[in-house]
Amino acid sequence: MSEDSPILFGLYVPPHPQPLLSPDANKGYSNLRSAFETCRKRIEESDADLILVYSTTWPSVVGHQIQALKESIWTHVDDDFHYLGSMPYNFSIDDEFAHEYCAAAEKRGLHARTVEYEGFPIDTGSVVALSLLNPDNRIPACIVSSNMYSNRSETIVLGKSARDALITQGKKAVIVVVSSLSNRMFTEHIDPVDDRIHSPKDNEWNEKILQFFADGRLEDLSQLSREIHGQIRVQKVVAYKPAWWLAATMGQHNNYEGEVLAYEALHGSGGAVIQLTPSTGSFGDKEFDEDDVEYYQGDRNVLNKGDF
Amino acid sequence: MKKGEIVLGCLAPHPPHLVYAENPPQNEAFSEGGWETLRWGYAKLARKLKTIDYDAIVIFTPHWQTYIGTHFLGLPGFKSKSVDPVFPNLFRYNYDLKVDVELAEAMHEETAKAGIITKMMRNPDFRVDYGTITSCHLLNPDWDKPIVTISSNRNSHYYSNEVMIEQAKALGEACMKAIEKSGKKVVLVSSHSLSHRHFVTEAPLPEDMSREHIYNHSQYVWDMKIIEMFREGKMQEVVDIMPEYTEQTIAETEAGGLIWMMAAMGVPSYPAEIYGYQSVIGTGNCIACWDPNTNTRELVL
Ligand SMILES: [Fe+2]
Questions:
Q1: Beta carbons of A121 and B87 less than 8 Å apart
Q2: Do B200 and A62 lie within an 8 Å CB cutoff?
Q3: Predicted TM-score of the model (pTM)
Q4: SS3 (DSSP) at A220
Q5: A299 touches chain B (CB under 8 A)
Q6: Host domain of residue A201
Q7: Least Cα separation, residue B176 to chain A (angstroms)
Q8: At B108, phi and psi to the nearest 5?
Q9: Cβ <8 Å between B83 and A120
């Protein structure tokens, strides 16, 4: 790992509850479960001070929300997969980091706030990830939302703010992005043994993305985000943002050791467990035409500019 | 057994701000008020509901989002705390509600017969969404009637607004059949805003009404157009224009609630009663109802 990075390694994990609640219903689910367990061990063996989660299943509207309730305890039930069972959780949150992250985001022009409320509904993706990656709360965690209107510049700046906060507090972190690859699920109930990726097109794109991850080409993926959004993402939000946040937080380059620990279908969507570790070798030849951004200055207002 | 019927259909927006502004004992947050146009409108509609004889409220909510079919609440009671994931500073509401499971199961059965993917939700730990709670609290603060919540299947995300409309229509018709067979008198609630672009920042005091206004004028003009059609009883035209309206105003109608309710009510051609329109954090919200009874239908606003 490079000397000055506050990030020990990054993980990309799927949000659906099957690996937590029904790992034996399908070989693929149990493969994902084993991959989560490998990552859990690696986190335990690392000297991480913090696990920071960016979850695509926690949408926010008013800026960016950061979980700061020191003891976050509740029993969560998924909106679709409620029949698979309940997910009781008891997470230790690093509230000091949460406040630092919020301040760092504000310094970079973002509207951000911490949430510290008993019973706050932590989303399925975060609950699954933290339950499997950090079951005994060995390491404190923090979770940040994904604003439903935010696009690239805002997400990049949100990632950079996370890095700022880690550096300010001198903390080493494992960062976790919770997101599917292709996110189209089957729209009917299926027998889990019949689970597969929804379409060959989704599968091909997932395989391509996994190749990039395996080669450690994170910035290349970040640059490809808009294309990925158009090709294999159900248009629930304005953009596919996880690679933007991950790259901005870990460092916007291709110097990573990539490892795909599992790739399986989760009710049709693409679920992968991937590890990226900062390294020294570089790979990738994409032309970087997306501009870098340091501060968020709001959406550009183009309606009242120019000659009429 | 006498045939069941829909005795009223309500468009009931659910910004949690409205419950926050009321300061009911169930909500932990405290406010200095705000959004009176909507709250007073709700109070008037709640008084009308008190004069109507009905057995249950059936509510369609955008905040129980399902991608695998349409789900129905399927246990007799739910008691917990609902914390709004988007506005937790405003809404932390302790609820204790009753469900008409018999009616939910009947609707589930008819829905399945109509070829729609559907599921009963029987996990006792499930938290009822804040859309259901907000609309039901404002329509019936006494909570003295059982409810049935129907999840919103997100067909518009997976396919298009047109597909969503077709499915919402089929769901509405199936629910109507179940209601008729049940012999019950039912109030339908379609819980959502109209135009739905939010501001992404919040005033330090959220109820500071000097800061509240519609997100942009285009949203307002579209909302007024739709409300004018409500007033004129042109609900078939509303259904027809819905894909365009939803796209232009990012309307919360995208979940299908209004179409579901109109289809269940046979697409009314009589005027709606309008109880108020106001923006909440930039979104457009209208309270309205469709009263099939010509003796009690009135011109409210
Ligand atoms: Fe809503």
A1: no
A2: yes
A3: 0.94
A4: helix
A5: no
A6: 7-278
A7: 23
A8: -60, -45
A9: yes
- Given an 8 Å threshold on Cβ–Cβ distance, is A63 in contact with B200? yes
% of chain B exceeding 90 in pLDDT = 93
pLDDT digits (tens, 9 = 90+) for B271-290: 999 999 999 999 999 999 99
**Separation between Cα atoms, residue A122 and residue A57, nearest integer Å:** 9
CA distance B257 to A63: 27
Cβ-based burial of A191 (10 A; exposed 0-12, middle 13-18, buried ≥19):
exposed
- The number of domains in chain A is 1
Interface of A with B in 216-255 (CB under 8 A): 234-236
- What are the structural domains, with CATH classification, of chain B? 5-290 (3.40.830.10)
Domain presence at residue A156: yes
Residues B166-219 pLDDT 10s:
999 999 999 999 999 999 999 999 999 999 998 888 999 999 999 999 999 999
Ligand 1 centroid to Cα of residue A165, in Å, is 33
Q: How confident is the model over B1-56, as pLDDT tens digits?
A: 899 999 999 999 999 999 999 999 999 999 999 999 999 999 999 999 999 999 99
Strand partners, B242: none
Determine, for residues B67 and A185 on separate chains, whether the beta-carbon distance falls below 8 Å: yes
Indicate whether A285 belongs to any domain. no
ipTM metric: 0.95
Name the B residues in 132-161 with CB < 8 Å from any A CB: 151, 153-154, 157-158
Q: How far apart are CA B40 and CA B32, in angstroms?
A: 15
Query: What CATH number did the domain enclosing A267 receive?
Result: 3.40.830.10
